[in-house]
Recover the amino acids of this structure.
């Protein structure tokens, strides 16, 4: 996220103030959500975390299947 903030800083003179404010605010929201997720995951015990990671992997696979016109098994 540091790179995004640096890009916003560099773009302040080239782009509108409103666009840069919007980008800064979105970066801040992403940071907040990231910290909340990291905090929640840090409280899981290692066995639960492994199960959670596997479930997220399955969810991503299913989501990918929904976006393809043909599913190969």
């Amino acid at each position: 996220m540091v790179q995004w903030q640096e890009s916003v800083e560099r773009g302040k003179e080239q782009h509108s103030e409103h666009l840069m404010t919007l980008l800064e605010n979105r970066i801040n929201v992403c940071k907040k959500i990231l910290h909340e997720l990291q905090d929640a995951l840090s409280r899981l015990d290692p066995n639960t975390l492994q199960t959670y990671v596997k479930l997220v992997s399955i969810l991503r696979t299913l989501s990918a299947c929904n976006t393809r016109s043909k599913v190969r098994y």
Observations:
- The chain has one domain: 2-67.
